[in-house]
Every structure is written in structure tokens, then in C-alpha cells.
Queue: 2 jobs
Job 1
Amino acid sequence: MRPRSLVPLIYILFLLLPIYWLVAMSFKTTNEILGGFSLFPQKWTLANYRAIFTDPTWYWGYINSILYVSINTLISLAAALPAAYAFSRYRFLGDKHLFFWLLTNRMAPAAVFALPFFQLYSAVGLFDTHLAVALAHCLFNIPLAVWILEGFMSGVPKELDETAYVDGYSFPRFFATIFLPTIKAGVGVAAFFCFMFSWVELLLAKTLTAVEAKPIAATMTRTASSAGYELGLLAAAGVLTIIPGAIVIYFVRNYIAKGFALGRV
Amino acid sequence: MKTENQRAWFFVLPVLVLVAFNALVPLMTVVNYSVQETFGNNQFFWAGLRWFEEILRSERFHAALGRQLLFTVTILIIEIPLGVAIALAMPRRGFWVPVCLVLMALPLLIPWNVVGAMWNIFTLPDIGLLGWTLNNVLGIDYNMTQSPVAAWITVIVMDVWHWTSLVVLLAYAGLISIPEAYYQAAKIDGASNWSVFRYIQLPKMKRVLTIAILLRFMDSFNIYTEPFTLTGGGPGNSTTLLSIDLVKIALGQFDLGPAAAMSLIYFAITLAVSWLFYTLMTRDEP
Amino acid sequence: MAEIRLDRLRHSYLANPAGEADYALKEINLTWQDGGAFALLGPSGCGKTTLLNIISGLVTPSDGQVLFDGQDVTPLPPDRRNIAQVFQFPVIYDTMTVHDNLAFPLRNRGVAPDRVETRITEIARMLELEDQLGTRAANLTPDAKQKISMGRGLVRDDVNVIMFDEPLTVIDPELKWKLRSKLKELHQQIAVTMIYVTHDQTEALTFADQVVVMQDGVIVQMGTPVELFDRPQHTFVGHFIGSPGMNLLPCEVSDGGATFHGQPVALEGPIIRNGGDTQIGIRPEHVGIGPHGIPATVRKVADVGRHIVVEADAAGTSVNAIIDRDPPERGAQVHLAFDPARTRVYADGWIATEEADP
């Protein structure tokens, strides 16, 4: 093995250490955790996981999160696809500045914008619904989806569109039956990033929900603070939040790097 | 060549509506707060630019801004070169590439408060793997809740842990898009490894690195959840970054006016820096 | 500058090649004289780029040696072979000016600054790049970029050979012709050995003094453009070079002569090799339409300007003839007359008739 390949190896080790510790904690009993330091769980227990899967306030947190993340991914893609097509195929007034404007929406300090968001979604009667979180997350996910999809679409020669029109395809039919399958890798990558950023965001999700649509991450904070220091339970809940992401990332593993490379600045 | 077509705006319309709904209405609300004063009971009084003047003169803001700048600059200085170095050391093809990428992307997919909680557990001096090792094996006196220096280092290491992978992925994407002929030509031209990096790899990574720096700058400037979960801004105010301070003012003291004014000021700073950087980096492009 | 000799060269991309089929290059022996202009011609995937990369040192051959002026350079890396290579897609250093691009290979070798400047001025004049020396290379057109890649090879006065790997692929058709004659002109000026890899016969035949035709990792013929055209050693050369390519008619061989569907065909000389599969090969340029010869039906007549291409059907085999005037009607019954001095028999693809005394 060349010494150079040690660099990624050491880095990955560094990444995995805290995750290992979280996993190890989740299998320890509360007594063991508070009793002192131990590198491996001395007495393996599934009690923490059992607690989560038998308590509706816990497992509904997961269902809520997955629901709004899925809705957000669908909305983001549906809106971003035609926009990305327009960016990749046409020049129009203001197109150059639009991307930067879209990007600026990441810059707003979410911490203070949370309150206006709360007021806005209360005013339109969406507070504490999955749709509210899904719509709010569009703020930063749509620009990202547009960026990634535009990159992939620009890689498809324009002749494909023209040939289809000559062959008598209508635009919607061309888009659905020819164009989309061509860029399905791009759609996958965009969906992955929408999923990712919606899944990890907490501040807005917490602000816009109370009971009905409360995300798992928010459930975690509350339980951890109210029920004292239940580290094992906290760790188990944390481990469970990593799993959906890990599954999704496994499916797009071959496209991640490509998705970035084709994006434009 | 793209065709000029103003009807393309119809394609962009759904995006505009959705983003504008989420961006403009809250922004207007914040602007509205920033020029008013409230004593609760939903009563508001015109305050003009008073909050802006007060904030710009307040030492608390200066201190928070200073800490924020220090934090952002530090993580950029660490994460960007480190990410590039790791990307350079990665194999370009083969079985290990997807494995590496999946493992590296893992931190990016963990909810932000879980990241904070995870690092909290990891660094506990008595039962955390890192905390325990530092104190009991390496003999370093480490307690994040008491030493501001330790808290700072921990927050920064956590951010490096959390986000360097994003830089790696972007830089790696730039690297694999370089055709093999460039390396061959450089070999024939007798270029050193440094020249290959300086004149081939770095220029080809410029676009993706621009994105990486922009994203890291913007996201680190707004960072809230992770450090708050980890340190709560302490000990003292030592890790109270801008967003944490903002939330203290807005929700802790319910001083909506000053908080709104402050957030607009710092939105403006972010915007100005990003725009400047974006313009500088893309100025040579056709 | 150097003479290049390839000695029993073989290459496989597999770690443990099992049989002949695993080799991308099958035993190659050839010598290129110092200062010549050579072309490697063949279809995509025939191994010509592999061969080029072996000469430049980017690929190490499985067996055999590469010799520059009799000296074995096989183990040397590309930068120590003193070669230059121009790639299919222009490779330029985007962030540098044209001037710095040209200076790069010299500076890397520690050439004195004033010498660098002299060389750049010289080469820029030759390539007509003087006005663009100060511009950033990234903003240039593909043909200018390709000129820079060439220039990076030319500035070095120690180069043994400059190699071109399909360098005109991305160039517009009208500029292709210009750049090609520029190349020819450069070769005459500086007389450095040049090897030009292409799948385009026009490029190869106009550029090179000597053309090597490759197919499936084997050199099928090496010769001047005239030799390749006049007397193809292999049916592949016959049909790959020429437009349309050489006609091939299945034939029977008996008593040193050949017959096509029972009709004897006069050849350049006696048949000296036998093989399972025998064919008569004759170029369309040497097929005439007259009162005698092989009976055929005209299927297509195409006036391509300078001459007329007649496609006829002779007992199920398609035969092209190139004539100057008086084309027959479509569907007409004609007789095809072959010029005996240019009519040959190929056995299993390789030429089987003895060359007539010149």
C-alpha cells in the first residue's frame, strides 16, 4: 500500500470515531454509562432501542421526519426540473443573476428568520403540518436541485430535443418519456441532496411543528433535557437518525462525485 | 448556443414563487421588526434606524462578530486545504472509491443537533472516548465546560469533522473530471508534482472550490444548532457565535427589534462577502 | 532528433496475457529514420495510440524494446526521453498566457531565461502566434490551442521526436487543411522526426513520407503513400485506403492463374502463395468499361465531379469502376476490363502474386 492512501484512511478513521462512540453508548445500560469509562459495552442491551420502538412519541418522530423530507424532495424536484431545463436550454432576461439570488437564500440567518417563518405558516394555517416543513425547506433545497439538474441537462445535447420535436413529440411527452430517463442519474443525485439537507435541518422543522409533525431530532432534544441525562436513549435515537441517510447514500454512491462535477457555478 | 426565449420564465416561475414565498415574506417581517420597538402585547412603535445604530455601536455585537469571523476564517483555513489534500490522495478509480465516498459522506447526513449531541458524548471528560483519552491517557487537562480554549478547539474540530467531507467530495469531483491527457502532457513537459497541482489540478478545481468556499462560508457564518447543542455558547460567552447571540436576544430576551436589525446587518455582511468572492472567482469566465 | 527502432515489441493491457488475442499489439518490428515524417494509420482500436504511448513512455510494453539512436529507452519515463506529444484534445495550461505555456517545458528543465525568450520568439513566429503571446491560453480557439500544444514540443531543441495523436479531431474542417499544411511546412523547416497517428487516410497520406497501416495490433504494411495505393500488401490496406476502396472479388486459383466464375482473369504475375480464402483485388481506378471483360449490370452511377463512379454487379459481387466520361445507363449490361498489371490475387488477406518487373 502506498503511503498516500493512508491519508483518506486516517481521515475516515477520524470520521468514524465519534460515530462509533455513539453506537457503543446506545448499547450500554444507563448504569454502565454513569459507572465510568468503558471502550466496549460490558453488558450489551437493546433496552434503549426497545424504548424507542415502543413509544409512539419516539417512533412517530421518525415517521414525521420521513414524511416531510419525502414531500420536500418531491416538491423540490417538481419545481426544479422545468427551471433547470430553462436554464440549460434558453437565455432569458436576468438568467445570470437568478442563480446567485437563489443561492443567497442560504445566507439568511435561519436562527432569526425562524420567528417570521412561524408567523407566516401560522397565518396561512399550515402550522404543525408536514407540508409546512416541506415547503420551508424548499428555500434552500430548490436552488440546490436547480444547480445540480442544470449541470446534468447541459450535458445532454440539444439535438435530442430537436430530434424529438421533428419526430412529432409534444413537449410534455418528450420531457417525460425521453428527457427524464436520459438524466435519471441527475435526478437521483438531486433527490439525494434534497433528502440530505431536509433531513439534517432542525431549526425550521422544530419551529414549524408542535405535536402532529414533530421531527425525530426535535423529539430527541426534548427527551434528553426533560428526562435528565438519559445518554443511552439519546445515543440510540441518534444512531437511528444516521441510518436513513446511510441507506440513501448507499444507493447513489456512484453518482455523488459526478453530481458535483457537472454542476455549474 | 442557447436560444433567447423570454417564455423560459414560465419554466422558472414555480421555483420563483416557492423560493420567494419562503424568502421574501420572512425577510419583510424581519425588516418590519427592525424598525420598530415592542413592549409585548403586540404593540409596536416606530423606532427608525435606532436599532441599527445601537447594534453597530454595541460591544456585544462586536464581540460576537469577532468570534464569528475567527471561527469562519479558522474552519475555512483548515477545511479547504485539508479537503483538497484528502481528495488528491484518494484513488481515482477502483473498488475503494465508492466505499470511501460513502463513509466520508456519512457526517453530512446526520441531523445537526445529533452532531452536537454526538460530540458532546464523545468529549465528556469522564465517560467520552476523546475526553477520557485526553485526560487519562495523554494527561492533558481537558474540560470543555470550563476552559474556553478547549471549548473553542472542540467546536472547530467538530466543524472540521462535520464538513470537510463536503470539500473532499467537491474537490474530488473536480479532480476526476481532468482528462488523462493533461497528466501525460505534464509528464512530457517535465512538470514537477507541484507544477501539476498548481497549473492543472488547481485551475480545474477552481469552479468546485468556489462553490465549496461559498457554501462553507455561508453555512459557517449562520451556524447555530451544532455549537449550541455542544457548548450552549459557553463557557461564559466564549463560543457564542453570531446566531447563538441572536437567538439569545430574540427569544431569550424577546428583543425582536434589535435582533432583527442585527440579523439584517449580518445578512448584509454575508451577502457582500459572498458576492465579492463570487464575482472575483468568476470574473475570468467567458 | 533520432532514429527510432521498435524491436520485437508486444503489449497487453492484461497482467497475464494467455494467448495472442490478449495482446493489443502483436510483435512489432520497425525502424523510422531520423528526421522523417511518419504516419500511423488505422481504424479506432487498432492499437495505434497504444504504440504511440509506448514510444512516448506513457505505457511500458509487455515485451520488446524501444530504441532511440540505438539506445534502449524502454525503462525511461516520458520526461527523460526528450519527446513531445500533441494530444487529440488540446492540452493547454489554462491559467497561463500563451507565452508561459510555451516557456513551461523549458523552465521545467532549467533552461536559461534569455535562451527561453529566444526560443519562444522563434517558435511563435513559426506558428504565427506572435500577436497572441500575451493572451491567456484559455480564451483561444481550438486550432490556436492545438498550435500551442505543438509549440510546447517545438520550443525544445533537444526533442527526439514529436508525436501527434489525431491532433485535428476538434478542429473545424477549413482550418484542418490549414493546420495540416502548417505542420508539413514546419517539418520541412526543422526536420525533426514526427509521428502522426490518425484514422483519416487523407491526413496520413498528405502528411507523411512513410505510412504505417495497422489493423488489430498488427502492422499490415509500411510504405510511401504511392506504394500503399499502388500495391497494397493486404486487402485491409486496399479497402482502407482509396475512395472507394479496392474491389475484392472471390476467385478460384488453379495452375498459377485465377478465375472468376469460370472466367480467367489476367494477373500482374504468377501466384506464389496459397491460402484457403482467395480474392482478386483491383482498384476502381484500374477498372475500365469496355467491350470485353467480366459481364456485369450497372447498379448505380455517381458523378462526383472530377470523375464518375460506376457501381456494377458482377455475378453477385459489387465492383466499383472510376471512369472519366461517357457513363453507362443504370441497368445497362457492360463488361468490366481489369488492367492486368494492377490485378492481384490475395490469399487469406495477404498478397499472393509476384510483382511484375518494373
Note: Chain A has a mean pLDDT of 81.
Job 2
Amino acid sequence: MGRQQGWFALILALTIASGALLANYGLQLGLDLRGGSQLTLQVMPAGAITRVDSEQLEAVKDVLERRINGLGVAESTLQAVGNDQLVLQLPGEQDPSQAARVLGSTALLEFRAQKPGTEEEMRGLLALKRQAESVLRAKRPPSVSEDPTAPPPPEPPALSPQDLSKALTSLGIEVPTGTSEVDQIELLLRETNRRILSLYGPPLITGKDLTSAGRQQQATGSGWEVTLGFNREGGEKFASLTQSIAGTGRVLGIVLDGRSISEASVGEQFKVAGITGGSASITGNFTAEEARDLEVQLRGGSLPLPVKIVEVRTVGPSLGAENIRSSLVAGLSGLVLVAVFMVAVYRLPGIVAVVALSLYALFNLAIYALIPVTLTLPGIAGFILSVGMAVDANVLIFERIKEELRGGNTLIRSIDTGFSLALSSIIDGHVTGLISCAALFFLGTGLVKGFAVTLAIGLVLSLFTALTCTRTLLRLVMSYPALRRPTYFLPSRQLPPVKSAAPQPGLA
Amino acid sequence: MTPAPSPRFRISRHRRLAWVGSLLACGLSLLGLALCWLNPSIGAPLRPGLDFTGGTQVQVERDCAPCKAITAAEIRQGLSSLDLPSPEGEIAPSLGSASVQVLDGGRSLLLRLPALEADQSKALVDGLAGKFGPLLKSGTSVNTIGPTLGSRLLRGSLISLLVSFAGIAVYISINYSGVFAFLALLCLAHDVLITCGLFAWLGLLQGIEVDSLFAVSLITVAGYSVTDTVVVYDRIREQRRTLGDLPLVDQVDVAVDATLTRSLYTSFTTLLPLVALIFFGGSTLFWFAVALTVGIAVGSWSSIGVAPTLLPVLSKR
């Protein structure tokens, strides 16, 4: 009897603890249930690195985390998945395009000086580039988030189709017929960029030499500029770099991810000492949004390896809410039906089972809150199935008890035998289930993993509740002589005729 | 107490019927899978969804009541005039190849496109809002899956499925015997095949696609099928002590009869929440619940009618 009371005390304690846990922590809902965006980033091997290992993944994650913090999205999480993927979750964020822009690029910033003797060629290329850029800017529909009060961009210098094709031929680009004008201009820009890069010397200063980054509106014009602060060494390098080209007409190129974003000439007055003071600004004619993106990227530092965004999922909050509501209604009504069925078929032990299964559901949810498990749709499915398994354990036990009773055993003895005989099949069923869960968890991807976790928790708990909760509660009920009637277990016509009349004395 | 070896229900008397039924269902399923594979518009045993093919799926909800009817052709026309931004040096994918579905009498639009960048999907949604709007901001869902991710997902699911099969086979071989393990896996293949077959036919006739949730449901069906079969095995093993002298056919009959109530009750109670999900559980889980319901029903059938009846045939000792 003492051991039984110990179990009962444990169950009671667990119930209270679970209730308290749930009340304090609540459940974490996945993005498919509450809306938001999820981006999966694939870290790509580059250069000498042919396989991404966990150390490099961690390094990439650090940089991305700094950038995400710079974006200021509440409650975002970044998790490593497998050896070379990162999953970023942005709850409540409906527009992942900014995050995608900021995270997707390497942000490798380089300062390079133009090679001597290339002034003529550079001037031509830059003129062509400016022209193409402004035409393209005018052609693009303005982004919605752009400030509507900003003055309209100046009328673009016309780039007639003839001029365009002449420029393309002069750069040696062959354009397939049928290419749209925008695409032609983009081809042109790509080629000019490639040529401009070839006129630069090696990178002298990189993003590593930065200590800070900021942005401000340009003093002239409507654009934005990004301000940079160098560390001591960077400041010295910047001074000597600017000194070397001051007054020569050659430009200082600022290159971001292999694209020349700004070409600045340095005035004669810096001939002596170069630009000192350890700061600089990039006036690349940015929009407010672009300037902010670049600032965040430069602050976070450049990525040690390039990343590629391989998956973007966005779920609207109303779709999520609908999912929650309908799944909850379905789950609950299913469980209520199961409860009705159990009581109808198994009578008194059916009621005990319903109590035990309610505890089972409570423990399950408490563990979700404790670990915490983020509840997703497949997770809910896993939960519902594990409830099925938990019910099965009870069915197995009660069927055995009924069999023993039909065979003429006493009530208490039937209960004990029922539990011990059902044990092996319950364990076999649960262990095979857990084997599948393990395979799914370690080898499956995102969705499958969430399913495996909730199913595994459910299986382990179901073993526990069926073998302890149901058993302890049933024994507790049996300690009241008034309830110790076989007819509370089985219709009297199924009982062996002789022994069915009197309640059985307890043997336990 | 020795249970009387006189089962009310003898499965061996019906085994030919059980075999014919299962063979017929398997044959139909194989036919469905083959037809799907031969179908030029599908080209795979099941119609693969976005999760496996990669691409972008955009769902928007229009903010209007009542909504003016709108046809897929109108939307396609509207799409072709949209200009998407493209990263430097790359050409934006054409929207002409989009597949368009109009749902709920014009309230929701579902577009399927080649994979788009985040910027491009934003431009697309903005463009749709301009042409067919206003749109409900909260009802918009955009999913983009890179082409490599789909094949990765497929591989991951298949490998985990095979490994869990192997694990289960080892466990049963140790606890029972090789023949038991073989039959459990045969049953499992039977259940998974019929579930797949149903979705192959649904894909052929209704255009239903399989997604990663379908992969999850197959794995669940597999696990459930084994659990169900093992309960019957457990009974046979337990009876060895008392009924060991009887022919195996009779032992199996007694075991199936003894576990029949449990099998039916358990399937019934597991099916209850699933059927509730089918009827009340929103569109996202509908096909998932259907796959599980069918798989579990078939699994319960095979644990009664297939694995036990084949056992005496295969273990002639």
C-alpha cells in the first residue's frame, strides 16, 4: 500500500508542477500557427574550403546574428540546421525581403586605388555607368516603402536605343535579339563594372579595418550616404591610400561584394598627409533603405563564406489563427469522442483511463512548455497520434483485465494480471515507435523533426501514464469496497455465472 | 488458466479472401503509381508539390465582399505586364509560366511560379495588390523553396524511413524471429504502398499534390502498422507456452481472435481525432489527415488479415 501512495503523491506533484509550468510559460507556437517569416540559408563553400564544417557555420551564424540584431526584429531566432544550413525565424514579420537582402550578401567591403595610366578609360566607363544607372533608376517603379515626400529624381539623361547598342558594341557585348531594354542596360552595367574592377589595384583596406558604420542624408541631393569609422591601423592605411592618389585624377574605388559601389576622386589639398581623422563616407547615391541595409551589413562584418537563401516561407497571421482554431476544435472534439467511447466500453476503468489520459495530455503540454518545443502543425499531428498510442495502451490493459475476469479470476487478481500481461505488447509497440522517431529526428528535415519530437515525448509519457497513472488510480478506486464490483468492469452476462454475485475481497 | 483454444472468429478461414483483397488493392496502387509516372505532366510516381519541386507559391486573399469574379486568364494577363527587379546581371524569371488557381469564388488567388527572390515576391504581391487589390495583408502567404532543398527533403525523408525500417526489423528479429520481421515489413510496405497508391490516383484525377506533410504521414503509417502487427505477434509468442502443440494456423487464429477487439478499438480511437481533423481541421491539414486515416485503416487491416495469415505459410517448420 505504501508504494502505491508514493506513486499517487508523485502523480499529484507532477500534476501541480505541470499546471504551474503551463500557467507561467505558456506554449511556443510555430510560425505556421501564428504567422511570420522563415528563411533558410545555405552556407556555400568557397575558395579553398570545399566542405562547410561546424566551426565555419558558427562563424557565419555570428555575423548573421549581428546583422539581425541590427535589423531590430523582435523575438527572431537563428538556428543551425544540419552542417551547412541556418534557419531564421521572424515571428510576425510579413515582409522578409529586407531580411533577405541584408542577410544574403557577403558584405565584403574593399578600398582600392585606381592603377596609374588608366585615367582615360576610367572616365569613359564611369560616364557610361552613371548614365545607365540613372536610366535604370527612372525605369524602376518606386518602392512602396520609399518616402513619398522625397523630391522626384531628376530627369534621366536620355539613352536612346542607338546609343545603347553603340555602347554595348564598344564594350564587346553581344546581345541576343529580343532582350528587353532593361536587361540590355543591366548587361551593360555588368560589363562596365567588370572593367572598372580590372582598373583597380589590390584591396588595401577591408571591412575588417572598420570600427563603426552609420548613415546620414547627403548634404546635397536627396540621396543617403553611409559613414564609416576606421580603427587606428585602418585610419593610417586610409590616409596613405588617399595621399597616393590625391590630385592625380585617379579614383578611390569602394568595392562591395565584387561590385564597385562608389568611385571618389581625392582633391589636391590632401597631397601632403592624405585624408586623416579615421573616418570616411560612401556617397553611392543610396536610397534610405539601401543605406540602412549597408550600414547593418558593415556593422555585422562580412561573412566568412557566402550564403544563399534557399527557402522563404511567409504565413499571414489570419491563416495561422485559422489553423490554430480549427486544429484545436478538431483535436478536442476527437479527444472528447475518445473519452465517451472509453467510458461506454470500459465503464469504471474507462473513467479512470479518461482521468489518466487527461493527465497525460497535461504532462505533454507541460513538457512542451519546459523544453521548449515549438508547436507546429506536424507537431500537433504527432501529439494527436501519441494520444492514440496512449489510448491503445489502456485498451490493451483493459482487454486483458476483461479476459481474466471472463476466465473466472477475482477482480484484483485480474487487474494485476491484466497489467503484467499487457506490458510486453505495450513495450514492443512503444519501442518500435521510438525507433522510428529516432530515425526521423536524426535524419529528417525541419517539419519531420518537429513531428518526431512531439511523437517521441508522447510515446515516453504514454508508457509512464499507462503503467503508473492508470494503475495507481485504478488501485486507488479499488480501495473503496463499494466500487469493487466486476459488473463495473464488464456486463454481467459475460462473467462466469458462479462467482459474479458477491464483490471480491482485495488481494493486493 | 488456459484459454480455450476455440476462437469465435477464425481468420484462417477467410485468408484467401484477405489475400485477394490486399493483392487487388496493391495492384490498383501500383497501377496508379505507374500511370502517374507515365503521365507526361507528372513524370513521377506521385504528383510532387512545391516542397519537392522547388519554386515559389504565393497565396493572397482579396479584401472584398462580395468579390467580383475573376478568371485565371485575367490574372495571367495581369502578371505578364509586371516587371520584377532582378539582381545585377541576372534576368528575372518570366511570370508567363505561372500556374494560377482562383479559390473561394475569387476571394483567394494561388500562384505557383519558378523560385523568386524575396525582393521579387514582394514586387509580385505589390503588383497583384495594384491590379486585383486591395489585398488583406494578414491573408498573404509566400513560400519559396530552392530547387536543391526539395531533393534534399526527399532524400532525408527516404533515408529516415529506410533506417527506421531497418531498426524495426532488427528489433523484431531479436525479440521474435526473422520471419516475423519479414512479415512485419511486408505489412508495412503493403500499408505504405496502398496509401501512396491512393494519392497517386488522387494526383491523376484531382491534381492533388504530395508535400512534406505527406512524407510525415507515410512515416507515421509505417510506425503504426508495425505497432499493430507486433501486438498480434506478442500474443502468439505468449501462447507458445500453452498452445505450442497446436498447428501454427490454429495458434494464429487464437491470437487474432484474442486481439481482434483491441485492434478494432484502438484503430477506432486513433481514427476518431483524425476524422475530426478531416472535418474540422482547416485546409492545411486536410490531406494529411486523409493520408493518415487511410494508412491507419489499412494498417489495422493488414495486421489482422495479412501478417498473421501469411505466418503459417512462410514458417513451415
Note: Chain B touches chain A through 85 residues (CB under 8 Å).
